[in-house]
């Protein structure tokens, strides 16, 4: 069972329930991927509410790797989520909300 106080969430991807967490290493990976100078810049980027499909893949992949899965961005891009695009957005939103200390609306 995921522990939201540690920033963990559970989501269905590829027909399996999986745990995602943005560990410090995963956040460093995202800082690099999004050319954000620090965590504040990374959080501000996500607060703008604009996210490409590639951004969602990166965030979900980093969350899965943070939880211990050995998975590439390319493999994540092939996973299906319930609800299609809206399902991916929901996963990303929930993961970012628990990571940065806010509950999704």
Please supply descriptive tags for the structure shown above.
2 strands; two-stranded antiparallel sheet; mainly alpha; 5 helices; 105 residues
What is this entry, summarized?
The protein has 105 residues and is mainly alpha-helical.
Molecular structure report:
It is a single chain. The protein is mainly alpha-helical. It has one domain. Helix content is 50%, strand content 11%. The chain has a two-stranded antiparallel ribbon.
Explain the layout of strands and helices.
Blueprint lengths: L7 E6 L2 E6 L2 H10 L5 H9 L5 H14 L6 H5 L7 H15 L6
Antiparallel strand pairs: 1-2
Helix pairs in contact: 1-3, 3-5
Strand tally, please? Answer: 2
Helix tally equals 5
Largest sheet, if any? Answer: 2 strands, antiparallel
- Report the principal-axis shape: globular
> What letter string, H or E per element, gives the SSE order?
EEHHHHH
Helical content band: 40-55%
Gap between N and C termini: 22 Å
- Total count of domains: 1
Question: What oligomeric assembly is this protein in?
Answer: single chain
Mean pLDDT: 92
Class derived from helix and strand content: mainly alpha
Question: In what order do the strands lie side by side in the largest sheet?
Answer: 1-2
The Rg value, from CA coordinates, equals 12 Å
- Percent range for β-strand residues: 5-15%
Show unreliable segments: none
């Amino acid at each position: 069972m995921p522990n939201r106080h540690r920033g963990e969430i559970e989501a269905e991807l590829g027909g399996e329930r999986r745990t995602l967490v943005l560990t410090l290493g995963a956040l460093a990976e995202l800082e690099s991927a999004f050319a954000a100078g620090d965590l504040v810049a990374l959080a501000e980027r996500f607060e703008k509410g604009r996210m490409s499909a590639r951004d969602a893949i990166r965030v979900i992949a980093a969350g899965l790797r943070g939880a211990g899965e050995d998975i590439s961005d390319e493999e994540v891009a092939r996973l299906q989520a319930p609800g299609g695009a809206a399902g991916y957005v929901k996963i990303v939103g929930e993961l970012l909300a628990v990571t940065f200390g806010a509950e999704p609306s």
